Amino acid sequence: MTHERAAILVCAPDAPAREAVVRQLRRRYGSDYEVLPSASETDARGRLDALQSDGRDLALVIARAGGGDPAHPLFAWARSLYPDVRRSVLIDWGSWAQSETARTISDLMARTLVDYYLVVPAREPDESFHRAVTDLLHDWERASGRVRTGFAVIGDPAVARTHALRILLTRGGVGADAVAPTSTQAQSLLAGTGAEYTGVPLVRVPDGRILRDPDDAALAAAYGLTTSLPREPVDLAIVGAGPAGLAAAVYAASEGLTTVVLEAESIGGQAGSSSLIRNYLGFPRGASGADLAQRAYQQAWAFGARFAHARRATGLQLDADGAFVLEAPPAGDVGPQAQAGGESDGANGEQEPGSSVRAGAVVLASGVSYRRLAVPELEPFVGVSVFYGATSVEARAQEGKAVYVVGGGNSAGQAALHLSRYAASVALVIRGAALAESMSQYLIDELAAAGVGIVTRARVVGAEAAHPPAAPLLERIVLADTLTGEQSVVACEALFITIGARPHTSWLPPAILRDKWGSVITGRDVVVEGGRLAWPHDEPPAPLESSLAGFYAVGDVRRGSVKRVASAVGEGSVVISSVHQHLGR
Predict the structure, then answer these.
(1) What does pTM read for this prediction?
(2) Fold assignment, 376-497
(3) Separation of alpha carbons 197 and 214, rounded Å
């Protein structure tokens, strides 16, 4: 799509409503978007076809629906031509009280035909109308990859590290252009820098420097994130910046506790890779996991929480004063990179000081990671056409492909739904007989509406590459029936795996009681399972406290947690009252 201005299509048969919407859109967005009015679905489809033929971009479709208006096919047609387009049904002010309007909106959203609704402007200017439009356009801009930050990853898509770098940048909220090493764009970016592509990916940063396959710490430093640990003791150290850890950081910092958050990978944790979370309180249109995480990160930062990015906790001790000493050695040298126009390997030879932090209390919120399938044939494809989790970076690359998602939970459902925007076909592979055992009903309904296939009582047991294998590109997978063992081979060009949950707790000392899966035992279960040896104190442990007083576990890393973002946020919020009590003692 090369045209400067993307289009906004407004389709409504009633002239007053159509003209009110078009007038306000042109006044507010006319310099950046072309607003196209249409009085009928037939005319609107013709305009969409013309836009597609001219290589034009489409950002937003606003159309009437219900009451006999044939707008449903228009929404479906727009999405088939433009997978990233935002779609909104137009309703009159006050009509939400009518049962027919409510059913129409619910039906359209359940069938994934619209993102939300817009109310016909009631005044000029109508800022409520514009706020909703701006949110939709913002979503489209991010989904379509039009955000330009100045970062670019120059690398072979058949190299796993190329994908990993783009995912890290995207999860960090900056994104990056994908540039083929042999393209004219790559030649232009590298011209005059002295850098050459030699088989490992390069990252071009906004000031023109070229980083050669930077490690996570160097990449974080390149877009302005701190990686150092505070030298002075803090009240609270939080391990993990997923929903639970970020919530704990917001409440701790807002209540005056000196707080540092250690995050080994990306802000948002596992939830940060979710393409759309529809059932989180206060976000009626839904929000991407990355967007939720970035908002929470900025909120915690504004309250004064400090963040040490690319820092993985590796050990925990108690000092003579009873304070916690959390070990987290630097992930890499992250001093100043090269000068503008130069090339750097992400290190300058100056070792960053500080490999531990001292804290009065610790909140563990490190979450879990997806379990890897024990299928050796998959290993050559990991990071190229086999992925653990799903991100928007990889979803867009699956256009026209046959894709399978392994898993039956909400993460798998969200991944499959997002992939269905681009892939030729998407199917979920689950071991059980039905989805309802572990997935929210709204997702089940949306998957059915989107045409996502469900392969029940099956597991992946093998994989095959294209012949001749020019690159580690997946072509087929082998499925086995979990009851009979019968095997079948199906075409599969990309596999996304979102199963199992392994907590990050192997680094913890024996004093912290865990179950056989590694989940931290908290609250009264510490005494029930460990007895007085595990908890020798007179006062019982706090609800989220581990067997080591002052050490708390929240979110998915805790045994018995509810695997939902809202639950993790709740635990991260309420644990701070216990932290206050411990510090007071």
Answers:
(1) 0.85
(2) FAD/NAD(P)-binding domain (3.50.50)
(3) 14
